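>> received
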Amino acid sequence: MSSSSFGALSKLWIKWKSLNLPWRRRRLVGMDLSGTTFWEFKDPLNPVRPRRMAQQTRRKHYADIQTSPAWHQWLRHTRFDAPSLEEQKADVQRQLQLKHLAQLADERWASKASYLDAPKDTAQTAPITAGPENLQKANRGAPSEKWQPGSWEPGVMKR
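>> returned
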């Protein structure tokens, strides 16, 4: 929700609720793009650190609620200032651009041949010639193929 989509009465209500007046129990800090309002109020148990909460719109089901990382940081006191609407819009644009770039990278990856696939052209591989040096290499085998383990007897334990 951008601030231009609000009516004059809604803008007045937002300004009034955002004022930090001494008799007010809680004040409106901001809104996200989906209409969730974020509030701050004094905590009687900890007067130094205010409590923060999010109030969802009534039109949404609880399973459909998603809080952006910036607002989540603000709610957990990791972030001091609340995110602005412009910052939230820029984050949405960044996410869309990232998805587009990931899709392009996936397309590039899919267009390349895999090293796991069998080669398509077998004429490029040279056949092995039956020369005497090649036969010796083939018959020789690995050094560990002829090795056999010996019998094992446990030794006497020293005390």
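>> The first strand starts at residue 26 and ends at 31.
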